[in-house]
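Lecture notes, part 5. Sequence design as translation. It can be helpful to think of inverse folding as translation between two languages: the language of shapes and the language of residues. The source text, in structure tokens, appears below.
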């Protein structure tokens, strides 16, 4: 099998056609609010209610019934079901659309909008209500619940597992990310150094476009299902030889 183990990195672009804003496109989130005011530990220390409200609004949007997985999310879940090797999705996104589409082997390296974390005892729990309104941690009973989201200056989650996945993969696919934020933007170099084939699928060339061996530009809901179907049919064809 040409590509036994597959690692797929996703970014905000894969959720764009589901109605969730990206960060750096025209009109994106960072064109409306400053990172340093809502997505750093210093901002939370200085002005917790502004930070909590920023995530309360995004959590509310995500819970709107109009927000659903799109064809790209479903295609990755199909690949996981039908691929004979290992398929792992590592997402920078904090939405729950990969899970909602059926992906099981999933790492949220930047955390999850529908979870809260206790800054005092470390408990992580599912959370769909607003935060910052005096709610208490169910374990330590302190009023220290924050979004379970990785802020700038904090360490992304599960990096050891991600490094191992990248070392073992034969195909690295990057979908819908501008390649602006490290360490995710460096994954393609790790995959290249381990001899993996590397493919970028994005609306336009990312910051790291030149590092990929193959690239496809256009909308994820068209390119990702096509890519997955071709991968699976080529695999089936090679088996029938
Ligand atoms: N299909 C495919 N790609 C798309 C689509 C689409 N329909 N729409 C937009 N894109 C692409 C854009 O061209 C852009 O390159 O998705 C990319 C989104 O880039 P960003 O907005 O920078 O989002 P992302 O790369 O996920 O940001 C990484 O930065 O702010 C932090 O924590 C935040 O996880 C985020 C990280």
């Amino acid at each position: 099998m040409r590509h036994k183990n597959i690692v797929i990195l996703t970014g905000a672009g894969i959720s764009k056609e589901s109605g969730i804003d990206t960060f750096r496109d025209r009109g994106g989130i960072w064109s409306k609010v400053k990172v340093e005011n809502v997505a750093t530990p210093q901002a939370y220390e200085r002005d917790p209610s502004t930070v909590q409200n920023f995530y309360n609004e995004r959590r509310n949007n995500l819970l709107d019934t109009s927000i659903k997985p799109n064809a790209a999310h479903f295609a990755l879940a199909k690949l996981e079901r039908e691929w004979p090797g290992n398929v792992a999705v590592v997402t920078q996104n904090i939405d729950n659309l990969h899970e909602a589409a059926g992906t099981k082997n999933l790492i949220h390296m930047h955390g999850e909008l529908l979870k809260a974390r206790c800054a005092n005892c470390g408990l992580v729990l599912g959370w769909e209500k607003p935060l910052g309104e005096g709610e208490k941690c169910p374990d330590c009973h302190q009023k220290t619940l924050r979004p379970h989201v990785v802020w700038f200056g904090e360490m992304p989650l599960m990096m050891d597992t991600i490094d191992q996945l990248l070392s073992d993969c034969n195909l690295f696919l990057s979908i819908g990310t501008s390649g602006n934020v490290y360490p995710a933007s460096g994954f393609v170099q790790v995959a290249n150094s381990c001899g993996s084939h590397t493919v970028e699928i994005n609306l336009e060339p990312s910051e790291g476009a030149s590092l990929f061996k193959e690239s496809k530009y256009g909308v994820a809901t068209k390119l990702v299902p096509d890519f997955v179907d071709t991968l699976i049919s080529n695999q089936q064809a090679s088996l029938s030889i």
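The translated text above is only one of many valid answers, since several sequences can fold into similar shapes. The CA atoms of residues 63 and 107 lie 20 Å apart.
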